[in-house]
Design brief:
single chain, Rossmann fold, 6% strand
Amino acid sequence: MSEHGRSLVYEAGQWQVHLGRRELLARGVAVPIGARAFEIVEVLVRSANELVSKDDLMNRIWPGATVGENTLQVHVSAIRKAFGSDRAWLKTESGRGYRLIGSWTARADTIRSAPRGPQPAPISTQIALSQAPSTNFPGPSSGLVGRTNAIEKLQDLLSAYRTVTLTGPGGIGKSALALEAARGVLPDFRGGGRFVELAALSDPNLVPSEVARVLGLPLSADPSPAAAVARAIGTKKMLLVLDNCEHVIDAAATLVEAIVRLCPGSTVLATSREILRIDGEHVFRVPPLDVPPPDQGDPELVLRHTAAELFLERVRALDSNFSVDESNAAAVVAICRSLDGIPLAIEFAAARASTLGVHAVAAGLRDRFALLTSGRRTALPRHRTLRAALNWSYDLLPETEASMLRHLAVFAGAFSLDSVHGVASDLHVSEVIERITSLAAKSLIITDPQDASGYYRLLETTRLYALEKLRDNDEYQLIARRHAEYYLALIAQAEAESATRIEGDWLATYGRHLDNLRAALDWAFSENGDVRIGVALTVGVVPLWFKLSLMNECRRRVGQALAGADTEVDPRVIMRLNAALAASSLYTVGATQDVATAWTKVLEIADRLEDTEHRLWARWGMWNYQLNHGAFRESLPFARHFSDYATNPADLAIGDRLVGISLHYLGEQAQARRHLENVLTRRVDAAANSMVRIQYDRKLAARAFLPRVLWLQGFPDQAMHEADSVVRDADEAGQALALCLALSPGACPVALLAGDLTTAERFIALLHARAAALGLGFWQAEARCNEAILLAMRGDVAAGLLIFHPSVRELVGYHTNWNVTGFHMMMAAALAKAGAAAEGLKMAEEALARSQRDGELWCVPELLRVRGECLLLTGARDAAVAAEAEFRRSLDWARRQEALSWELRSATSLARLLRDNNGHEAARRLLAPVYQRFREGLATADLLTARHLLETIG
């Protein structure tokens, strides 16, 4: 471009674009804007009011370079920020390009001298500057792990803005990131780059002289040292990196502001735990490294997260034989998560892991300040121990903010301004806001940019440090009590709203407080806590534990509350705690006698208090207890009693579910289906949410059993569709208990019975994963029983039995017997099909005896059929006669139960026997009518077998 072209000045309204000076001015005052951003303005103003395509812009600004569209958008955003209230002048035409509107006129720049402002430094000073080396940036000592995207983003910002501040908590890696990005953009700065370390300065007044020293500039006495430095830099196109500005923040801000105002070619990159707060500053908050999810155990997947990648690299630097494998992956995940992905802390942990081992470090992080002390000898003093890194920030705080930080340490999770005011009740709301805002600006409080609801949190390491300070100041008991009292009031509000708010909304509002509720409970039941607050809190948190399927935690906490409750506690509280204990114990330790005792106590108090809700819940509990004990006949009266006490639609729906499930096990499939479908058709308020319904959605729970009934009645396609649908809906709703219920008695056995082994494998894996995540051992045992049956159905009988027998014993150990007979039935069928007659016959006979003793009649038709098949396989004398008798008994049971699928299996087995004894016509007359009653599922295993048999009969 010609020199004449560059001397033009474009004007429109208050704006001027000086091409020669490379300045954007508003009313004659320079507006800070980056070099690349100015080049975009130049292209657009030369084509004012005309569309400039994105491709044309990128080719002209970055000729020959491959630049993403995101980079262009960063600079466009910077230009709009510079234009302020006139930002709309820069128009975006979606998918096409950009247009700068306005009445722009061009004239020659008659003043070709230096920019507005004080005169430049003397020639001798500028010569000294020009003779300085191009850069003093230190070379990289090791590669930056996991910072590729951050480096690219920062480099884009440096070409768009003239002042960029990297901010974040101590140890996040601001200095390393700043230097790496600066090295990458250094070729764009003809005047070179200078790195100025301010950490060692104790006097803010020395900031200008330290910068001048690094630049090699003589700095004479001047009433404005910052302006003197800026005049010395003059028009040079320089990148200045100011590192660690937080303790001299005012002086650093004054200097940077002077450089931006007086040095149009210079760009400043600052690192600070607190932003500069000057005009034109663009803040880049350095994110922590990406941490693996808590349940990640696959080493390959763990190492896809940058925190784990850094940990591995740093440990290997000290121990080349180290690797992340299945034995230590969980410990690596725990370390990375506990340290919040902070690089400095991870490096400390890696250094310790190389000598102590990964598991020892993971276990020792509760006392991390004593453990993580082996920083590099060449590091700055505050980076040599984890405590030193936090001391640096804490010691810079005024006492008002230090006190607030200490008080915030009681929050184990996210907190709002309202909750902070609850623990700092001696302060006015405006004082709370001021102190929280200041701490956030200093990177000591973290805000979630994705969360618009105004919640904050402390990094765990910062919280533990502040908690130490809180205890050292003898403030802990007072603040912890206020914290517990605040959350006691909050959970009381949650309970009051639970009957009127939609469950998903309620859970989203109050679920986020669980960590703080746990912390409040820990204090309440501690030596110097308040047990009464703890008991009241426990009662209030029960609905949350149930909705989040945290049954083990609920059982433990409720047991703690019952042990601590004195004789003066309200009987209603004792009733509610016993109900919670019984319900949570059922899912964790099984249907023990203690569960029955607790439900009996609940019913006794509920009757005395005429508490309808707990009368219902106790009857639900006793119904569930009977089913788990295999007392299927005894379960039905409890289900009917529940329905008799129910008055509102929600409770009537639960009553229908209980009755329907009991009838299913008793073999009354038609009635069972009517009751289960009644649940789905009842109109129930979505917000209805009493104690009885607290564990899972009533419709999901009813749908969990519907696939079994549909399959038995001869609707295999509908059964599989409903099984898949209820599993998906429960998973998407985040209802883990309902999901396990949908999988265990519902989807897994139905897929196995339908012969869809691929889907069965998927369901079984999901059940195992969810049950393991919840710590529900009996459902894990059920998943293994299903897995064993799947192996046997695929022909690997030995492997299947090896898993099956110990899994059943484990299941019985949980006092959970309601699916045991069904598992034996399916395994016996798989054994018979595989030719393992003796084992299959024994298993079928034991299951038959149990089913008739307990009243679990739904599987009798299949057990009789399997016994007949196994008798045939033995080849004993009169085996065919005995088998035929079993098949005919099976047919009779299937017809009485209206179980068409059992009838098809029995008819197929009998027809095959008749055919083999030359009874082709009898076989056809028996099987064909049963087969023809099916209107779906013709491609399922049983129907394919029956059709093939009919074809061979002719």
